[in-house]
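User: For a benchmark we're assembling, each entry needs the component sequences followed by a predicted structure for the full assembly. Here are entry 17's components. Please fill in the structure.
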Amino acid sequence: MSNQEFVVLGQGGGPDACRPGLLAAPLAEDQAAELAKVFKALGDPVRLRLLSMIASRAGGEVCVCDLTPAFELSQPTISHHLKLLREAGLIASERRGTWVHYRLLPEMTDRLAGILTRTAGQPLHDSGEVPA
Amino acid sequence: MSNQEFVVLGQGGGPDACRPGLLAAPLAEDQAAELAKVFKALGDPVRLRLLSMIASRAGGEVCVCDLTPAFELSQPTISHHLKLLREAGLIASERRGTWVHYRLLPEMTDRLAGILTRTAGQPLHDSGEVPA
DNA sequence: GGCTTGTATCGATGGGTTTCGATTCAGTGT
DNA sequence: ACACTGAATCGAAACCCATCGATACAAGCC
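Assistant: Structure for entry 17:
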């Protein structure tokens, strides 16, 4: 059996430790747990639409009062989804007077994009077997 | 029953020529639903580690017999997670003799990276960043 | 054919998630 | 102070998911 162990790099460093990305080296357990929280926040169609509405809005900010009526869901439900996105570090909220405004935190989406991007030194291995 | 559903993203009706990404325009409902399936597949620490093990392995393929003992989980559980990653279009499997080998489908991770990447024409609306 | 090993599927279960109505909190205006 | 509106929090109910043991399927070996 080709039972070859996966060496897990013991870098339990802070949240801004060196990140080689998903595709370069096996993820450590704690890194995987931390990342999974963010991806789980993206794993819901309502939250994805909320995030895209916030991120694509000219001016960078959206009032909750504009988001809630865009769905056929109750106000507490939208508030709950926004909370999950906020706890995942994807958005931030600010209250200005009566209304609460949300904005994208691009550091997180940048980080995810980097994690999912092949590095130049990572060859592709799939020479010839890709179906279409 | 073996519906190896290859999730096709953002295909409203044409080839993927215009895919603005999450951050450029609000997602349509069906696009969000399909994208959410893939992110949901990534929203589990075990699946993230499995994917990173598969993606980072030199040669591009990993035998299940190497993946299963790397976790303190039962063999059916690992098989279940691999199935979800496969149905999300992130990996593919091939049986060669006794063993089954998995490999990354880089089109999907590439697509996700693109979706999470700010386009150059999409400025950042710099506002006061961290609430000092 | 039987035996052994590797992998996938099945059925059940405990825990988590989505959603709601009701309530509470925050801010504005009267 | 009171009333009104926008948003968050609080249970609760329906649903989904991760995990397991048991079982079935696949391939090689005796």
